[in-house]
User: Fold this.
Amino acid sequence: MDHYLKFWGTRGSCPVSGSQYTHFGGNTSCLEIRYGANLAIIDAGTGILPLGNRLLKEGIRKFHLFFSHMHWDHLIGFPFFKPLYRPDVEIAIYAPKGDGRAPKELFEELFAKEFFPVDFSALPAKIEFCSMQPATPVRLGDLAIECHLAHHVYTTWCFKIKTPKEKIGYATDNEVELPFDEGFVEFFQGCDLFIHEMQYSEKEHLERKGWGHSSPSVILPFIEKIQPGRWIVTHHDPDHTDRDLHEFCQEIKQKTPVPVEWVYDGAVIPLKE
Ligand SMILES: [Zn+2]
Ligand SMILES: [Zn+2]
Assistant:
């Protein structure tokens, strides 16, 4: 099978490990999108470590890596992504600007010697920073990847991935705003597959308003509005154990007519060829 999505990291905020996390896993955000010969990666949380190892084994040397934003959970696996340490590797990076700072500047800071032993400029791989703008899809063969501003703490992207057969929405960090942002509704309307976080319970959300994540009371009406074919929940809170997530899933299934599932590290969803 070479047309699929693979979730290499489904945890939000901070990686976790322990017997209470064995089902959903503890690696932070990383999604592989494979459509025949075309490959895209979204985010470089700790899930990108096993993905990098697998892709090197496959002999892949060219990578298109999209970043939703630069919070730790989406970036912290990047210095440990083994393809960076090979001179025959080429990596195209697409990332939103920070608060007035170019992505390259933020990467250089990540590799400052106080944080990491290898300087960014000394990495053997050829790294290119590519521009990406909302409403202008990046085309990789049959894949088209488009970004839209999410409602998060600073400039953050969510994505829409189009194949010739399906539309997939992907938003790991988004606090749905009420009333809805019409542009946001339009962007995701009619997705076959909608991957969107619901990191907080209502109680947690009350304590963490403005932290950029959603709870049932904001995301459920949004799901009703855009009517996706299927809803996949990712970016699980580090405090939520396997038991908590199973219970959360059962509770939400009673509240939405849209098929919903909680995704886990290593999950593969086939795409239509
Ligand atoms: Zn996050
Ligand atoms: Zn974030």
Q: What stands out?
A: The pocket of zinc ion (ligand 1) is lined by residues 12-13, 29, 71, 73-74, 172-173, 235 (CB under 6 Å).
